[in-house]
C-alpha cells in the first residue's frame, strides 16, 4: 500500500522510495481514513493525480506533494526534509484561514480555486470561503472578484463578508499547479450549500409559481448589475445559489466586467449558455446576460436530459423554432424575446419585469 510508483512497476528503485512512503504516512497522520480510502488516495498519488483530502491544510498538502513526487529524482533527500521549516519548526508563517476556521466540507473546486464550507472558531457560525491561487506579484493588485463583491451589494447576490491575502513562504510552493511565488486570496461569504443546478437535477416536477418567483428574482438581480454598468458574462444554474430561505443568489463574480460603450470581445464564460456573439468572438455588451437568462428559463421550465439541453440550446442559438415550450405560451413568448439572435432586439430588463409572464407574482 505504501509503495512508490517505481516499486509498483517493478522498476529499479532507490532510497527515494522511502521518501514517497513518508509522504503517504504523513497524509494518514493528518487525516482520518479507512484502509479503503487510504488505498484509493495513495493510488492517486502514485498516478500523479491531485486529491482534495488535504486541501484544507495547504501547507501540509504542498509538503506531502514534495515528498510524494512521482519522479524519484525530484523527491528530497532526508537531509533536505529535516532542514525544511515544516520539520525544523522555524516557520513564521501563520495562516489566518487555519487560525480562524474549521473546514467542514469542500463545496467546489476549479483549476485555480477551491470553495470550503467552514465554521468560525469564535462564533461557530458556518460560512463559505473561496481560496484563489494567484501569482505573488499580482497579490497586491485589485482582484476582479473581490472588487465585484465589495461594490455589488444586493439581496440577489451572495453576501460578501471579508477578504484577505496570504503569502506562504516560497518553500511551500511544491504543488505543480502553483508557481514558485504563489499567494492565496481568500473571500469569506455567506454559506449556500445548494445551487440551482443541483435543484434542477434533483427535481423533475416543476412548480410554475416557484419558477416564476425565482426567475423574477434573477431578472431583478441582473438588472441591478446592469444598472451598475457591469456585465456578469457567465450566468448559468451552477453560478446561482439557493440560500436557507429559498432565495436565489448569484455568485462567481470573477467574470464580472464593466459594460462601457466600448464593447467587449473574447470568449469569457461557459459555452453552453453563451450568446451567439460571444461564441463567434464578436463584440458584445450586457445583452449577453439577457440571452443567458432566456436559456436558464427554458431549463427551469422543462425537464431535459443533458443531451436534450445541448441540442435545444444550440437550436435557440441558430434561431430554430422552439417546440419544447408549446404548452407554455407565456414562457415561450418571454424566451423568444430574451434569446433574440440580434442583440439589439433583446429587451432591457426593466421591460422584462413588466412582462405578463410575471403578472401573478408580487
TrEMBL record:
<feature type="domain" description="Protein kinase">
    <location>
        <begin position="1"/>
        <end position="87"/>
    </location>
</feature>
<keyword id="KW-0067">ATP-binding</keyword>
<dbReference type="GO" id="GO:0004694">
    <property type="term" value="F:eukaryotic translation initiation factor 2alpha kinase activity"/>
</dbReference>
<dbReference type="GO" id="GO:0005524">
    <property type="term" value="F:ATP binding"/>
</dbReference>
<dbReference type="InterPro" id="IPR011009">
    <property type="entry name" value="Kinase-like_dom_sf"/>
</dbReference>
<dbReference type="InterPro" id="IPR050339">
    <property type="entry name" value="CC_SR_Kinase"/>
</dbReference>
<keyword id="KW-0808">Transferase</keyword>
<dbReference type="InterPro" id="IPR000719">
    <property type="entry name" value="Prot_kinase_dom"/>
</dbReference>
<keyword id="KW-0547">Nucleotide-binding</keyword>
<protein>
    <recommendedName>
        <fullName>Protein kinase domain-containing protein</fullName>
    </recommendedName>
</protein>
<dbReference type="Pfam" id="PF00069">
    <property type="entry name" value="Pkinase"/>
</dbReference>
<dbReference type="GO" id="GO:0005634">
    <property type="term" value="C:nucleus"/>
</dbReference>
<dbReference type="GO" id="GO:0005737">
    <property type="term" value="C:cytoplasm"/>
</dbReference>
<keyword id="KW-0418">Kinase</keyword>
<feature type="domain" description="Protein kinase">
    <location>
        <begin position="101"/>
        <end position="358"/>
    </location>
</feature>
